[in-house]
Design a protein that fits this description.
This protein is mainly alpha-helical. The protein is 65% helix and 0% strand.
Length: 92
């Protein structure tokens, strides 16, 4: 579990690209093995923090895109004519 007191230090000024690159390095080091147990645990915990940070940054980007005027305009449904033309069923 992530220590809430460490969150600001982890995310302060870190870009998605920097966090992802560090996460890739952590994964590479864990997969290579050869670390002592304590070092492996510290790497795992750092990886968890970085993964959460990356997810938060991606979620924020998605929210910004969804809130953009173009996204809102695209989300407005366009009325479609029903069967038989624009006035509804044939013979109405």
């Amino acid at each position: 579990m992530t220590d809430p007191d460490r969150e600001p230090a982890v995310s302060a000024g870190v870009t998605y690209e920097v966090a992802r690159a560090e996460l890739e390095d952590v994964v590479r080091r864990l997969e290579a093995g050869g670390c002592a147990l304590e070092e492996s645990l510290a790497l795992w915990e750092r990886g968890e923090e970085l993964a959460a940070l990356c997810q938060n940054l991606l979620d924020g980007a998605r929210a910004r895109l969804a809130a953009s005027p173009a996204a809102r305009a695209a989300a407005v449904p366009v009325p479609q004519p029903g069967p038989g033309g624009p006035s509804g069923p044939a013979g109405a």
